[in-house]
Amino acid sequence: MAVLEAVRLGMIYPNGTRAIKDVSFSVEKGGSCTIIGPSGCGKTTLLFIFSGLLKSTEGKAIIEGKEVTSPPKNAALILQNYGLFPWKTVMENVALGLEIRGMKKGRARNAARQILERLGLEGFENYYPKQLSGGMQQRVAFARALAIKPRIMLMDEPFSSLDALSREKLQNFLLELWMKERLTMLLVTHSVEEAVFLSKKIVVLSPRPGRVIRVIENPMAGRKEYRSMEEFFEKCREVRKSVGAI
Ligand SMILES: Nc1ncnc2c1ncn2[C@@H]1O[C@H](COP(=O)(O)OP(=O)(O)OP(=O)(O)O)[C@@H](O)[C@H]1O
Ligand SMILES: [Mg+2]
């Protein structure tokens, strides 16, 4: 069964800008799908619709069989600018999602501590986001997302502001997480390599208004070694061709 489904989604903003048109695709349970396309083609719009933060003007976004009308409980959202509250500490940022869901403060903090440790952030619980590097802030954003034990991760260019090394490390982390926890992922990226490394399905959008030009299957994704295999470079070439970069 499809966990995520876009059914002829379209979005015209109130000022008349059409961001996307007739976008359909689906992601199976435990699958990973990347949306790739030129700047302004409606990728963030699409992700916001799935996150329940934006109502589409046409079609439907469906998560686990239900049309999305409000932020879905089982999905975590990770944004490009980390989405952390600057006035809250690392601990408070990570525990917040749990407290909002009704967990008592003490338990929420314990759970947050465990996940921070897993992401190599122990010792930084009382820091504020601006006292951390970009890569660390991004890990805090992941910690916050993972603390709620989501079944689905929605991510909008989560690595775009990181240096190449931190980016690769976090990509590996996400890959492991995806494999271990059987998460279903929907990722937006500008990076062909990231798309090929992290997803079994790549949906290529046209320039605005975004429409699906191609859906590329990438069955080899899912292991760390893929990055250095000949098939990986082949697939990158294929995707790059579809997005019009070569
Ligand atoms: N609130 C809004 N009101 C009007 N138009 C908007 C709004 N938000 C986005 N748009 C327009 O919709 C189009 C798609 O925007 P969106 O942010 O979804 O693109 P994107 O593919 O995520 O771009 P990028 O790769 O640069 O992040 C753009 O032309 C943008 O100007
Ligand atoms: Mg965007």
Quick recap of the structure?
The chain has 246 residues and is α/β, with parallel strands linked by helices. It contains 7 helices and 10 strands. The longest helix is centred in the C-terminal third of the chain and has 18 residues.
Describe the structure.
Helix 2 packs across helix 3 (105-118) and helix 6 (192-198) packs across helix 7 (230-242). Helix content is 35%, strand content 25%. It has two domains: 1-74 and 151-246, Rossmann fold; 81-149, no CATH class. With 246 residues, it is α/β, with parallel strands linked by helices. It has a six-stranded mixed beta sheet, with helices on both faces. It has a four-stranded antiparallel beta sheet with strand order 2-1-4-5, with helices on one face. A hairpin with a 5-residue loop joins strand 1 and strand 2 (18-28). Adenosine-5'-triphosphate binds next to helix 1.
